[in-house]
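Consider the subject:
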Amino acid sequence: MTTETVDHDHQDDAVHDSGHGDKPGYDDLNTPVILLVGVISAIVTFLTIAFVQGLCYKWQGSFIRERITDYPNTPINKLIKDQKSMLTGDLPGTISIEDSMNKVIAEYGHKPADSPDKPH
């Protein structure tokens, strides 16, 4: 080996020895970037949840409105009206509930003392 080669080898060792105490670049954590990504992820997650929840409420409201307008209550209303007219005696062949109660009382006498209508 010549002196130039030996000197060259010592120079390379000196360059490597001067940075020996430093960490390699891939071991450093970039904390501000990690924090920024975490905060942005939390905001995006919150906005996504709020958007989906609002969308669900809107869909539920539209389904309820559709159901109300699609199925009118006319058959039920007619049935209730017919039942009320039976109780009042407006239908042919029927008498009112008051008249029928009076008729039963007149035929069978007064109400017994232990009737279920009497409060305990």
